[in-house]
């Protein structure tokens, strides 16, 4: 049972954080036991691969936490300017390196968010000011959607073994 399911109903922040961590874990598990070729396998016309999904989730964490909430620039932390670039794999991207970077960035996001209240506002480049609560909910939605995409791709990759 996840931490989310064991929380008291009156602790909104703990529920949001636990649900977000559940989705983060689902994304991280997409690469478990895959070969480098399997993780890079392209099964759809877009740039979406299992390795690319985890790399994109890293981008999402960075855009919403250090950039929007922490006030840093994309250039300062090396975040791509476009969503498509966040799925693009380089020769240096491996199951181990992308997975480890994702886990590290998630921990950095947790640490940064701990210094803010749910009603504190972040600045988004297109949407204006948004609360940390909104960011948590948005990331839960986005990561859940991508975990679902990844589940389908992973099922296809494993079935081809």
Task: List descriptors.
Four Helix Bundle (Hemerythrin (Met), subunit A); two-stranded antiparallel sheet
Outline the secondary-structure elements.
Elements: H1 12-29, H2 36-40, H3 50-69, H4 74-77, H5 83-87, H6 95-114, E1 121-124, E2 128-131, H7 132-159
Antiparallel strand pairs: 1-2
Protein architecture, described:
By secondary structure, the protein is mainly α. Helices cover 62% and strands 5% of the residues. It has a single domain, classed as dinb family like domain (Four Helix Bundle (Hemerythrin (Met), subunit A)). It contains seven helices and two strands; from the N terminus they run ααααααββα. Helix 1 packs parallel to helix 7 and helix 3 packs parallel to helix 6. It is globular. The two termini are 30 Å apart. The mean pLDDT is 93.
Specify the CATH homologous superfamily. Answer: dinb family like domain
Give the uncertain stretches in residue-range form: none
How is the main sheet built?
Answer: 2 strands, antiparallel
Count every helix, treating DSSP H or I runs of 4 or more residues as helices: 7
Tell me the total number of β-strands.
2
What is the helix/strand order?
HHHHHHEEH
Number of domains: 1
Radius of gyration: 16 Å
């Amino acid at each position: 049972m996840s931490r989310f399911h064991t929380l008291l109903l009156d602790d909104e922040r703990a529920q949001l954080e636990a649900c977000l961590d559940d989705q983060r874990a689902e994304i991280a598990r997409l690469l478990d036991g895959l070969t480098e070729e399997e993780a890079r396998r392209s099964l759809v016309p877009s740039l979406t691969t299992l390795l690319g999904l985890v790399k994109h989730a890293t981008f999402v964490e960075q855009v919403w936490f250090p950039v929007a909430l922490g006030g840093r620039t994309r250039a300062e932390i090396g975040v791509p300017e476009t969503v498509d670039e966040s799925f693009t794999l380089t020769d240096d991207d491996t199951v181990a390196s992308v997975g480890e970077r994702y886990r590290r960035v998630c921990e950095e996001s947790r640490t940064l968010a701990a210094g803010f209240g749910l009603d504190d506002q972040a600045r988004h480049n297109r949407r204006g000011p948004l609360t940390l609560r909104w960011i948590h909910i948005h990331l839960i939605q986005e990561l859940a959607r991508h975990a679902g995409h990844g589940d389908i791709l992973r099922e296809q990759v494993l079935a081809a073994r």
